[in-house]
Specification:
Length: 244
C-alpha cells in the first residue's frame, strides 16, 4: 500500500511543471562554475570549482527547493477536501505522511545527481586536467542529500499544517536568506537546518577549499540526524491528530 501511495503521488506530478525545478539549481550553479577562475588553483581545481558552485546550489537553491517540493506534495490535498478523500482510503496516516516525505527526498536526490553532473561537465569544459574525484563526488551528493532531511521534515510539517501554498514558501525564503551570515558562525551554523546542506557538502570535501566554513562532517551528521528525528516525530504527531 505504501508504494501505491507513492505511485499516486507521481501521477499528480506528471501533469505539472514541477519537473522543471529539478534542473534550476544545477544549471544556475553551472553558470557560476563557468565564471569561476580555476587556472591558478593547481591541484585543487575540482574542489575550488565545487566551492563556487555550492554558494549557489547548497547555500541558496537547495534549501529553497526543499521547501517548494514539501509544499507541492500537500498542495492537492489542501484543495477541495483532498485530505478527506485520501484518508478515506484504506491507508494509515503514517503511510501517507511518510510517502509524501519520500517523494520529496526522491526529488532532492535527482537534483543532487544533476548537480554532480553539472560539476563534472563544467570542469571538463574548463579543461581541468586532474581526474574527476568520483568517490568524493558521491560522498558530497549523499551527505548533502542527508542534510536536507531535517529541513524537508520541518517544511513538510509546516506545509501539512497550513492550507496556504504560499505561506510555507515565504517562511522558507525568509529563513534561507540569512544563510551566508549563519554559515560564518561556528557556534550556530551546525544547528540551522537551512545551512546544513551547504556545510555538509563543503565539509565532505575535507576542507580543501574554504576552510573558514569547515566543520567536521561527523559533527554535522549527528546534528542532522537528531534534528531530523525531532521534526519527523513532531510532524507525524501533528498529522495523526489533524482534523480533516
Amino acid at each position: 500500500m505504501f508504494m501505491k501511495i507513492i505511485q499516486s503521488e507521481w501521477l499528480k506530478f506528471r501533469k505539472s511543471n514541477i519537473w522543471l525545478l529539478l534542473f534550476v539549481s544545477p544549471l544556475l550553479a553551472a553558470l557560476v562554475g563557468f565564471l569561476t577562475d580555476v587556472q591558478k588553483m593547481e591541484g585543487i581545481e575540482w574542489y575550488y570549482l565545487l566551492s563556487g558552485m555550492l554558494f549557489v546550489h547548497g547555500l541558496l537553491f537547495l534549501p529553497l527547493l526543499t521547501g517548494i517540493f514539501s509544499a507541492f506534495v500537500t498542495r492537492y490535498e489542501h484543495q477541495g477536501g483532498g485530505w478527506k478523500q485520501l484518508l478515506a482510503l484504506p491507508v494509515s496516516r503514517l503511510q501517507v505522511y511518510l510517502a509524501k516525505g519520500t517523494v520529496v527526498m526522491i526529488f532532492l536526490a535527482i537534483t543532487q545527481f544533476f548537480f554532480i553532473v553539472a560539476w563534472y561537465g563544467v570542469g571538463m569544459a574548463k579543461g581541468i586536467i586532474d581526474p574527476f574525484p568520483l568517490v568524493s563526488a558521491c560522498k558530497i551528493a549523499l551527505v548533502g542529500w542527508l542534510a536536507c532531511l531535517p529541513l524537508a521534515a520541518l517544511q513538510l510539517w509546516i506545509s501539512t499544517a497550513w492550507a496556504s501554498f504560499a505561506a510555507p514558501l515565504a517562511i522558507n525564503v525568509i529563513f534561507t536568506m540569512p544563510n551566508i551570515l549563519v554559515a560564518n558562525s561556528e557556534k550556530y551554523a551546525p544547528f540551522y537546518p537551512w545551512v546544513q546542506p551547504f556545510l555538509t557538502m563543503l565539509s565532505a570535501g575535507n576542507g580543501k577549499v574554504d576552510e573558514f566554513f569547515y566543520i567536521p562532517i561527523e559533527t554535522l551528521l549527528y546534528v542532522v540526524l537528531g534534528s531530523f528525528l525531532v521534526f519527523l516525530c513532531g510532524g507525524l504527531l501533528y498529522f495523526q491528530r489533524k482534523a480533516v
